[in-house]
Amino acid sequence: MRFGPEQHAAPCSPPIVVILMTPPRTYREWAVGVISTVVTGIGGGAIAVQYFGLQEWVDSVTGLVALGGVIFGRGLPGGAIVRWVFNFIEKNRDAGIDEVAKEVKEVL
Asked: Which phi and psi (to 5°) does residue 103 adopt?
């Protein structure tokens, strides 16, 4: 079986979608967003494949495309979570640990 660029495009797609929907304010935010979205896509996709027993899908091109969709779908929440964490950190940059803990406790 030959692997082409279509098998490698899936991990790269979620960060592009996340960045287009919510443009980052700084280069640091962009870099961390891309890295974390790719990592959560690959890691979350691997967990989903293992949990649902989808390993046999790699035997066909259609299965590989479907697995790419699983990876894509798992990467989007990771990008959003990182974005939320960045906004929370930026909002509470000058706050003390007790103030941050109080706010987190209120949210949870």
From this structure: -65, -40
**Straight-line distance from the first to the last Cα atom of the chain, in angstroms, rounded to the nearest whole number:** 49
From the centroid of its chain, how far is CA 10? 12
Mean pLDDT of the chain: 80
Q: Give the whole-angstrom CA distance, residue 22 versus residue 79.
A: 10
The residue type at 26: T
Q: Which residue did the predictor score with more confidence, 57 or 17?
A: 57
d(CA 104, CA 98): 10
Asked if 32 contacts 25 with a C-beta cutoff of 8 angstroms, the reply is no
Q: What is the pLDDT of residues 42-69, one digit of tens each?
A: 898 899 999 999 999 999 999 989 998 8
Average pLDDT over residues 5-18: 58
CB atoms closer than 10 angstroms to residue 57 = 16
CA angle 74, 44, 60 (to 5 degrees): 80
> Where does 11-71 show beta strands of DSSP type E?
none
